[in-house]
Specification:
Layout lengths: L5 H22 L5 H9 L3 E3 L4 E5 L5 E3 H14 L3 E4 L5 E3 L7 H10 L16 E2 L14 H11 L14 E4 L13 E7 L5 E7 L11 E8 L3 H15 L10 H8 L1 H15 L8 H8 L16 H9 L1 H10 E3 L5 E6 L10 E3 H14 L3 E4 L5 E7 L3 H11 L13 E2 L14 H10 L3 H7 L4 E4 L13 E8 L2 E8 L11 E2 L4 E2 L3 H15 L6 H8 L2 H8 L5
Parallel strand pairs: 6-7, 7-8, 16-17, 17-18
Antiparallel strand pairs: 1-2, 2-5, 3-14, 4-5, 4-13, 8-9, 9-10, 11-12, 12-15, 14-15, 18-19, 19-20, 19-21
The chain binds protoporphyrin IX containing FE (HEM) and iron/sulfur cluster.
Length: 554
């Protein structure tokens, strides 16, 4: 993975010293609340319902075991012993005391981490495919490109005060696992007929109160033009994006107002001044970056389906089920990609305790070359596990509560912190996730239902991606009490779609029944091997409405 150079260390350490002084002055009453707010937000520090919340950047989801141990140490020393992985592959601490935050940042800097640009109207952490570098369907490893974008966007002087926050996602594989269609900019790798690598450029996607699927503004951007073209997009946005109304300030609103073609024309015009200029990425820079992401020392003498491993699969059905559900094929024979599920029933989705984080760091060292990834589905990935180590890993993961064989199933819920933590929430989300997980705790039943994305947000900001869940749940406020609106038919990936609301919202207690009724319609109507989302697309929302609301819905 990428390692800081002298410049990175200096930037981050200087920022820690700066923030230490700002915090001291605020606590001494020398800075007002209003003066301190932008300073803390530039360092990922929000003030939430009960306490400050610190969001730590995890660049494109990559973590080393050393970093994870540090995060565990911070959770234990400065917080309440746990941390939360977010849908943007970052990590949040929910309970740090303000006066300790400079110390936390100093500890993070020791392991090449920070919280810079994880909040505020700037370019946020670039996200990517959590299977980068190991997926069989990969065209390019997106991480060197993400790192180039990270360096370009960190402290970019022109883009520190954008109309609104800005999120970029990069996918290097055929399957889009980075949700590129619902980001401000999505970059999807493509290979031209002559073999040249470049990107399809998508702009103006987003969730929030106005969900929009992004539009392609360029089918092929040669990789060397990556930064000049990003500069051009950001300039057009920075100049023309609305600043009068924060709900209309995201780039998606500008693209919609200008039309994708109109926006693209403006970008091309701006780009004509920048193209081939100093920000053109030289081949040597790509080569330099690629060296940080070379393959680990795989044992290339291994073959697939080692006999000892095959025997373990046959002897232990629970192990076989976990392998089938929570691991996937690796591009190197004899290895598999393991997803550790952070979605055990009753545990807030994405939460992990300090002890669990330490344990995962140990497994990363023992079984996966000391690295891991956080996924935007709020799970952790050990990308390079030998088939012959899977059984030992499974036993340990099971004991630690990370081996629920539910990846991609109903209980693998994406969920924002909601009303338990977030001051913007209309409703709690974690207890609904727990109630649904409890209702469907029978894993055989979940396996029979098959692939299903259930996503939930505690308000229309959509941090829990409810619009692109096959089933989406949104917390709404009705005369001061918490209600839940349900949508069906959303999806992420290449054919991303936004779910349709099925009707009036429900009380919290009703939610498990509602989900069960929706599932029953699917089970009754599905064709053989048809996934929930495909049935929902084929039959539309009416049969679901009928079942949930009864005839009265008509
Ligand atoms: C302090 C807590 C949080 C606050 C105040 C907050 C605030 C917001 C707001 C205001 C939006 C809407 C932006 C817009 O429509 O322009 C948003 C969107 C979003 N947030 Fe959060 N959020 C918080 C926590 C989280 C967490 C925990 C996650 C991940 C689990 C997250 C991930 C996202 C994502 C993925 C979106 C939608 C994508 C987008 O359009 O930007 N946020 N957030
Ligand atoms: S969706 Fe709303 S409730 Fe949930 S974290 Fe985002 S802002 Fe908070």
């Amino acid at each position: 993975m990428y390692r800081y150079d002298e410049v990175d260390f200096r930037l981050v350490n200087e920022r820690v010293a700066q923030f230490r002084d700002q915090t001291r002055r605020y606590l001494a009453g020398e800075l007002t609340e209003d003066e301190f707010r932008p300073l803390r937000l530039m360092n990922g520090l929000y003030v939430q319902r009960h306490a400050p919340m610190l969001r730590v950047a995890v660049p494109y989801g990559m973590l080393s075991s050393r970093q994870l141990r540090k995060l565990a140490h911070i959770a234990r020393t400065y917080d309440r012993g746990y941390a939360h992985f977010t849908t943007r592959q970052n990590l949040q601490f929910n309970w740090p005391a303000l006066e300790t935050v400079p110390d936390i940042l100093a500890e993070l800097a020791e392991v090449e981490m920070h919280a810079i640009q994880t909040s505020g109207n700037c370019i946020r952490n670039t996200t990517s495919d959590h299977f980068a570098g190991v997926a069989g369907d990969e065209l390019i490893d997106p991480r060197p490109y993400c790192e180039i974008i990270r360096q370009w966007s960190t402290f970019h002087p022109e883009f520190t005060f954008l109309p609104r926050k800005f999120k970029i996602a990069v996918s290097g594989a055929r399957e889009d696992r980075a949700a590129t269609l619902v980001h401000d900019i999505g970059l999807h790798a493509v290979r031209a007929a002559d073999g040249e690598i470049g990107f399809r450029v998508i702009v103006g996607g987003g969730l929030g109160r106005t969900p929009i699927i992004g539009s392609v503004i360029r089918d092929f951007l040669p990789a060397r033009h990556l930064l000049t073209y990003l500069d051009a997009i950001l300039r057009v946005y920075n100049r023309f994006g609305r600043r009068d109304n924060k709900y209309k300030a995201r780039i998606k609103i500008l693209v919609k107002a200008m039309t994708a073609a109109g926006f693209a024309a403006k970008v091309e015009e701006e780009w004509s001044h920048l193209k081939d200029g100093p920000a053109t990425v030289p081949a040597a820079e790509f080569e330099h970056m690629a060296k940080f992401f070379t393959a680990p020392a795989y044992d290339t003498s291994l073959s697939r389906n080692d006999p000892a491993y095959t025997a373990q699969l046959a002897a232990e059905p629970a192990f076989a089920r976990w392998v089938a559900r929570n691991t996937r094929e690796h591009k190197v024979a004899g290895y598999r990609i393991v997803t550790l599920s952070l979605k055990a029933t009753g545990v807030p989705p994405g939460d992990a305790t300090a002890d669990q984080l330490d344990a995962v760091a140990d497994w990363a060292d023992a079984y996966s070359f000391g690295e891991l990834r956080a996924s935007h589905e709020q799970n952790l990935i050990l990308a390079d596990v030998r088939e012959t180590d899977l059984f030992a890993l499974w036993e340990k993961a099971r004991a630690a509560g990370f081996a629920t064989p539910n990846i991609g199933l109903l209980s693998d819920i994406i969920c924002c912190p909601g009303g338990d933590f977030c001051s913007l929430a209309n409703a709690k989300s974690i207890p609904i996730a727990a109630a649904v997980q409890k209702r469907f705790d029978d894993l055989d039943y979940q396996h029979d239902i098959g692939e299903l994305d259930l996503n939930m947000s505690g308000c229309m900001n959509a941090c829990g991606h409810h619009h692109i869940g096959h089933i989406g749940i949104l917390g709404v406020d009705k005369q001061g009490s918490e209600w839940y609106q349900v949508s069906i038919g959303g999806s992420q990936g290449e054919h991303a779609s936004l779910g349709k609301v099925i009707g009036p919202s429900f009380a919290q207690d009703a939610m498990p029944d509602v989900i069960e009724k929706i599932i029953s319609v699917y089970l009754a109507q599905r064709h053989a091997d048809e996934r929930f989302i495909d049935t929902a697309r084929r039959i539309g929302i009416d049969p679901f409405k009928e079942k949930v609301y009864g005839q009265a819905a008509h």
